[in-house]
Backbone:
């Protein structure tokens, strides 16, 4: 029995890990991290640490045998205790060391963490209803996903910024509420304990007939917000909404199909990070990866489209002609430029300096970070980053102005502002 339970547990954790690796990059995922400089015990089932975000997962893979109350006690209640224990270890103890499977032991960066999320993933199937949230007495909020929900949300919101946006808006809407998803095939002959559980949870509750995937469909079609029937009535003591089959309707719609096709351009950023940046041992590669992966899927689509147009341009350009392509997202500026194999290292480095200096000056230092991507026609990529740079002094600015004039840059420069819609026409 214990062996079977461990096998199910391992299978469940592997299932969740593989989805997380694919959606959020294995580089930021710590499967089953242990308290390396403490009791050596496993802290949680999965930990994701990206910039100032920490996501703590507890994964339960118990078989549902018809008794909802017993099943919830064996899954949700145990998982909550595990999550609370993980939080105490990570954030209440000093200098906790953990290990990524592909790296050396490192200290958990608790002082850089500003956003903490606790998630239970319940992989057992066949339940007729379940809570999708839990707000504890200390106002700590816990997200609860079933197997299908986690897989769908992680695949559809497959960047850390998009995933966090969903979690934050979900918490803001559902905190201090009892929120339950109820199967449309809900049986009428529930046992006494199940009836008591549902009736006890009526006050200050939201009951959703359908699945959380149906809720996700409304989130997409309502410009990344939840159904107005919930948000407009959130102060009411009891809400029931029926959104059965909304997900299937959305996924088969022309908008969803066009969105999926358009997003193919966005994976240029993911592949650049995975295949080029994180595979190099050059300085700042991890920081560059973090900057690029801080872009959401829509922003990555804009970058990908910009690169595709730029690369077509340089392949058709006259030999020796320098092309540049600029794009910005908040405080981040990206500049693509082409270089040629016959250039020596000194010439290439000088071009990087020229690109950075001229664009930083032209935009009057309004960007906190510049990422410069040199591209050959192969293509081969050379990447640099300038972050938190200072303003050039007056003498240097005069030199930069002279360089701009000599090169003829920005004389007929039309800034391209690309608006990318989630659902393209």
Residues:
């Amino acid at each position: 029995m214990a062996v079977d339970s461990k096998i199910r547990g391992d299978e469940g954790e592997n299932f969740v890990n593989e989805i997380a690796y694919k959606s959020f990059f294995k580089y930021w995922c710590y499967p089953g991290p242990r308290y390396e400089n403490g009791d050596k015990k496993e802290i949680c089932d999965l930990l994701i640490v990206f910039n100032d975000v920490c996501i703590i997962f507890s994964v339960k893979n118990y078989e549902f045998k018809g008794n909802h109350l017993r099943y919830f006690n064996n899954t949700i209640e145990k998982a909550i205790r595990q999550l609370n224990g993980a939080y105490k270890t990570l954030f209440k103890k000093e200098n906790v060391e953990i290990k990524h499977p592909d790296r050396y032991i490192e200290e958990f960066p608790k002082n850089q963490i500003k956003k903490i999320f606790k998630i239970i993933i319940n992989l057992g199937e066949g339940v007729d209803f379940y809570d999708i949230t839990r707000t504890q007495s200390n106002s700590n909020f816990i997200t609860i996903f079933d197997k299908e929900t986690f897989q769908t949300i992680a695949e559809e919101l497959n960047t850390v910024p998009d995933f966090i946006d969903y979690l934050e808006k979900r918490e803001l809407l559902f905190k201090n509420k009892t929120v339950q998803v109820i199967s449309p095939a809900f049986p009428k002959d529930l046992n006494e304990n199940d009836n008591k559980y549902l009736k006890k949870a009526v006050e200050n509750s939201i009951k959703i007939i359908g699945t959380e995937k149906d809720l996700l469909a409304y989130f997409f079609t309502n410009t990344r917000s939840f159904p107005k029937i919930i948000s407009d009535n959130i102060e009411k003591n009891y809400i029931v909404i029926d959104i059965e089959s909304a997900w299937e309707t959305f996924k088969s719609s022309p908008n969803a199909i066009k969105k999926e096709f358009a997003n193919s351009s966005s994976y240029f950023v993911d592949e650049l990070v995975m295949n080029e940046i994180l595979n190099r041992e050059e300085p700042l590669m991890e920081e560059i990866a973090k900057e690029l992966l801080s872009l959401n899927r829509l922003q990555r689509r804009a970058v990908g489209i910009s690169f595709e147009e730029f690369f077509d341009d340089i392949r058709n350009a006259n030999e020796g002609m320098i092309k540049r392509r600029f794009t910005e997202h908040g405080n981040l500026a990206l500049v693509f430029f082409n270089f040629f194999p016959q250039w020596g290292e000194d010439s290439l480095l000088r071009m990087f300096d020229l690109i950075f200096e001229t664009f930083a000056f032209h935009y009057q230092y309004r960007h906190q970070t510049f990422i410069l991507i040199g591209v050959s026609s192969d293509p081969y990529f050379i990447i640099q980053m300038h972050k938190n740079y200072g303003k050039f002094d007056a003498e240097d600015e005069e030199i930069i102005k002279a360089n701009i004039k000599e090169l003829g840059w920005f004389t007929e420069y039309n800034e391209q502002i690309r608006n990318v819609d989630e659902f393209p026409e």
About this structure: The mean pLDDT is 92.
